[in-house]
């Protein structure tokens, strides 16, 4: 059994604004294991982004605790790639290091290696506008990896992309996070993406978000995400989670 890298205890978040208060998260508890990929699915507006923002330290919890097992570095990747159009691919990839004032010869070398390893070496001096949507997301991922985080927080990282690109990127993402040995918490609204990629899927209730159900994803011949979609258990998980989400239009 792997040890926990992170425990969330009785987490509660209330936003206060002039019109009143919004309870976004209500008593959420979960342990995350080292190197685990956990996908969170839940209705729009239920509090998913709030959860990641608290884990990243961008929002303060109203109650409860986040316990990290030792000092852990967090990398946060947002829904859109947020690359700066006036910076080259390399300059974009270095930005996290600049902000954290850890850009030096060694860290720069590591970023160059990542760009090389993941097929972006020939593009490092190009601007984002010359890249496809999928490649921009890969740059965004490398930028997130540049500071060498232990835990990656991905907030619907591929939702702005078309279906084919998302499929290809799910394989890409999986290979990269396994090769780099990261723990991943990701939000997705795509049930199939969650099943194909994650070790566990956490289904959240509508706001205020609580845990409705947790699935251990056990697939026959589990491997790369695209292949996982062919597993016999795939539709079982899909149906169960679809039912849990209880979507109405
Ligand atoms: P999700 O990512 O699941 O769509 P969010 O975490 O973004 O949901 O939002 C959860 C709820 O909290 C929503 O009702 C949203 O309007 C509210 N909310 C989010 N951020 C703030 C904020 N900074 N101030 C006030 N309310 C907020
Ligand atoms: Mg969100």
Q: Characterize the biggest β-sheet.
A: 6 strands, mixed
Number of strands: 9
| Mean pLDDT over the full residue set | 93
Oligomer: single chain
The helix-strand sequence is EEEHEEHHHHEHEHEEHH
- Summing up helix and strand content along with how strands pair, one would put the structural category as alpha/beta
The distinct ligands, each listed once, are: adenosine-5'-diphosphate, magnesium ion
Q: Count the helices. How many? A: 9
- Unreliable spans are none
* Strand fraction: 25-35%
Strand order in space, largest sheet: 5-6-7-3-8-9
Cα radius of gyration in angstroms: 18 Å
Backbone shape: globular
Distance between the termini: 41 Å
């Amino acid at each position: 059994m792997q040890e926990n890298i992170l425990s969330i205890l009785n987490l509660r978040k209330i936003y206060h604004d002039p019109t009143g208060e919004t309870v976004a998260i209500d008593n959420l508890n979960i342990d995350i294991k080292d190197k685990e990929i956990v996908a969170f699915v839940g209705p729009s507006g239920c509090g998913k982004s709030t959860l990641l923002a608290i884990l990243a330290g961008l929002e303060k919890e109203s109650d409860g605790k986040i316990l990290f097992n030792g000092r852990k570095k967090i990398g946060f990747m947002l829904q859109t790639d947020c690359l700066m159009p006036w910076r080259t691919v390399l300059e974009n990839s270095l930005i996290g290091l600049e902000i954290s004032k850890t850009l030096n010869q060694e860290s720069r070398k590591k970023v160059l290696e990542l760009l090389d390893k993941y097929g972006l070496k020939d593009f490092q001096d190009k601007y984002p506008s010359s890249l496809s949507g999928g490649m921009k997301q890969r740059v965004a991922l490398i930028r997130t990896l540049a500071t060498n985080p232990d835990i990656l927080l991905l907030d619907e990282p591929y939702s702005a992309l078309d279906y084919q690109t998302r499929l290809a990127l799910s394989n890409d993402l999986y290979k990269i996070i396994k090769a780099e040995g990261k723990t991943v918490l990701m939000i997705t609204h795509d049930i199939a993406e969650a099943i194909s990629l994650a070790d566990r899927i956490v289904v959240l209730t509508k706001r205020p978000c609580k845990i409705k159900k947790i699935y251990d994803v056990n697939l026959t011949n589990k491997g790369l995400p695209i292949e996982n979609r062919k597993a016999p258990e795939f539709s079982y998980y899909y149906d169960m989670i679809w039912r849990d989400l209880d979507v109405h239009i």
